[in-house]
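Let us begin with a simple case.
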Amino acid sequence: MRKIRFETMLPDELLAERDRSGIAYLPVGSMEWHGPHMAMGMDTFNAYAVAQGAAQQTGGVVLPPLYIGTETPRSPQVLQKLGFTGEEHIVGMDFPQNSVKSFYWPKELFEQILRCQTQMLCDMGFRHIVLLNGHGADQQVEILGRIARELTHSTQKTVQSLFALFDDCGAGVGHAGLVETAIMQHLCPQGVELSRLPPQPQKIYTAQYGIADSETFEKGPTADFSVRYDPRDATPALGEKLVAHAVKRCVEQVMAAHPGA
């Protein structure tokens, strides 16, 4: 099988793949609270898996994943959607009930690291760099998009920022809910223990467990602030389908933007 992992490749192999496809994938995520039932590296595990799956189809190399992410304080309006009063100071998903804090990096440092890493890939001669992001924080998405635009302009290479989860995946997307739990079950079974959650049919409340649907952020909460898409319904088989869908959608977008494709 063709090597795709950057750190395992000899210099001549790197140069050959650079000249053949010109594509380099840089997965980035976070080290973040994902409920009491899941390991904190979920975002990055997902981005790395999607990057490897895409590279197998498009060609290219995959850099070691960056387990770093950034976040901002929640606005009063968002806090109220999550079931809080709106007067709390909460950064990202670090809710008061959580037993550990996430590793949220300062935005300036996060941007500097990603910008430098991407610039080095451009300097090595890769023609198309894909920043494959697994952490959906607005600020992180904005920073990666800005890096992509600015380096595309300054280097005359194609730098692309993509998110490793797609809303059209056929299941309810959210933070630490059904979709992410299923993906982690597939990619890292030892990183999920559903027994850490209360038994069904007891409801899971967002503010209590740090689990939230995307719809809660976008449209508003359920009547009692409980989770819509239950992580306890997750299965490894669903996770496998979700990763395959993300790889397919990623490949489509990479090839649509790839010079000469």
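The second case is a distinct protein. As before, the sequence precedes its structure tokens.
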Amino acid sequence: MRDCDVIFGCTDDHAGRINLSRLCFQYLIPLIDLGVVIDSDGSNIRSITGRITYVAPGEPCLVCRGTVDVGVARDESLDPQERTRLAEEGYARGLEEPDPSVIAYTTLVAASGVADLLERLFGFGSPHISGEMVLRIADRKVKGRSGSPQDGHFCGNAATWGLGDQTPFLGQAVWPE
């Protein structure tokens, strides 16, 4: 992916989203991250929310926006046996099923992500496009949401942008046991 001009992210896990976010800054590749959350009480849908987030140098990453939980990402990255052991001891979250998605809504969010890219490429629409668009699908509402990098985080430190290939990859260390 480091040779791409833009990356569309649509992974369901926090660890994958952290990797995409870091890759974006390390290789100066814009990322358009997409997500759909369907909230239900088990038998009734309460809300359907889509999210299109633009991540690039000068914008906050997915961690700083609150989209990614680093604790969940750490737990997802553990060896399955280690994760089960730590979950039983209360030190890691158990494996959860991903939220269900419906193709019509994921297609709507994907199309909105492509439209966001086209607007950025060709400059039509708002002169300053918010870094994130939230679609409250059932309410038929769209809103922009901005954010800021956390103090000391890689996305707010221009010295860490564009580093390219590194060892370890993406500057990641092995999670301590």
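Residues 103-122 form the longest helix (20 residues). The longest strand covers residues 45-55.
Keep these points in mind for the review questions at the end of the chapter.
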